[in-house]
Amino acid sequence: MSNWPQISLNTNNDNNRCFGCGPDNPIGLKLKFQTDGKTVRAEFTPGEQYQGWSGYLHGGITACILDEVLSQAVHMEGLNCVTARLDTQLKHLIPINEPIVITSTVTNKTRKVIKTQGTVYLKDGTIAAEGTGTHFVVSAKENPNGQEK
């Protein structure tokens, strides 16, 4: 008997309304990711709607950005996942209306659990935040023709 939860999602639905990466979410971050096969990367300029203290990005949005880029590292490996654990270290205030770069990589992979590491950089290269994630690999629900996606 496995200690891991059994998770199944309908992965045939589109994710265009995802808060982190969905292009159709009117209040979402709309992050766009690229990969070189090992590292996932995105650039983002946070607007005032995401601020905490005046002029600075809210720490919860920073954690959300890290969660999204960490999950994308798993997704770019062709796997569906859900975040089981997210650890963040906020190291520097992130100014509003200034570009940041977010990167992540997979650091450990088993059949059911993937571990990731990510970093948020200010435009001058300063590390603003770092995070690690533990992700459960989820099975795809069968589509109507009876095959897994």
Question: Can you describe this structure?
Answer:
By secondary structure, the protein is mainly beta. The chain has a single domain (16-140), classed as Roll (Thiol Ester Dehydrase, Chain A), CATH 3.10.129. 11% of the residues lie in helices and 36% in strands. It has a six-stranded antiparallel beta sheet, covered by helices on one side. The chain has a two-stranded parallel sheet with strand order 1-8. β2 (34-35) and β3 (39-44) form a beta hairpin. The longest helix has 17 residues, at 59-75. 24% of the residues are buried.
Put the structure in a nutshell.
The chain is mostly beta strands and 149 residues long. It has one domain: Hotdog Thioesterase (Thiol Ester Dehydrase, Chain A, Roll), CATH 3.10.129. The chain contains 1 helix and 8 strands; from the N terminus they run E-E-E-H-E-E-E-E-E.
Walk across the major sheet and give the strand order. Answer: 2-3-5-6-7-4
**Oligomeric nature of the chains:** single chain
CATH superfamily: Hotdog Thioesterase
Q: Could you tell me how far the N terminus lies from the C terminus, measured between alpha carbons in angstroms? A: 26 Å
Gross morphology is: globular
Given this structure, which CATH class is correct?
A: Alpha Beta
Helix content: 10-25%
Radius of gyration: 16 Å
Percent of residues in β-strands = 35-45%
Please give the CATH architecture: Roll
Mean pLDDT, rounded to whole units? 88
Uncertain regions spanning at least 5 consecutive residues: 141-149
Largest sheet report:
6 strands, antiparallel
How many beta-strand segments? 8
Number of domains: 1
Assign the CATH topology: Thiol Ester Dehydrase, Chain A
